[in-house]
Write a structure and sequence with these properties.
DUF4440; 4 helices; alpha+beta; 150 residues; eight-stranded mixed sheet; NTF2-like_dom_sf; globular; single chain
Length: 150
């Protein structure tokens, strides 16, 4: 093995050993963030939900558009609440922390109620959270897909 190959192998080994572990379901930081998010959503509180996002967040609700910035995220969620969306759940599939960054993939469900009729929805969400200088974790990027549940 030549010298460059040995050095490269040593670097790869170091990265693998030094990498933080993948979060197991039930990790406190991830669970707390999801519990707080669900509580704000299920209360229909767009302001409280918006506070969980970074000022410069980029969000894509899976419809081919993006929403940028906390004020527009609050406006988006206010529209969902006015349309009757509630009963949101998050079930983490995988989450990983790298320093002050967490990314998670999760399954989600919600129900939209209109004119007394409830329509359940489900999908997959990918969310990136960063820890600010104030110690709070906020979502900096988020995208999801959605489909009516059968």
């Amino acid at each position: 093995m030549n010298k460059i190959s040995r050095q490269w192998s040593a670097c790869v080994l170091f990265v693998l050993v030094a990498s933080p572990p993948v979060f197991a379901q039930g990790d406190k930081v991830v669970d707390d963030a999801n519990t707080t998010w669900n509580a704000a959503f299920n209360k229909g509180d767009a302001r409280a939900l918006g506070a969980l996002y970074d000022e410069k967040v980029v969000l894509s609700p899976g419809n081919g558009t993006t929403i940028q910035g906390r004020p527009d995220v609050e406006k988006f969620y206010k529209g969902l609440f006015e349309a009757g969306f509630r009963d949101h759940t998050i079930d983490v599939v995988s989450a990983k922390r790298v320093g002050n960054l967490i990314y998670q993939t999760a399954n989600w469900t919600a129900v939209a109620e209109k004119d007394g009729k409830k329509t359940p929805y489900k999908g997959v969400v990918l969310k990136v959270l960063t820890k600010g200088t104030d110690g709070k974790w906020r979502t900096t990027a988020q995208t999801w897909n959605a489909a009516p549940s059968q």
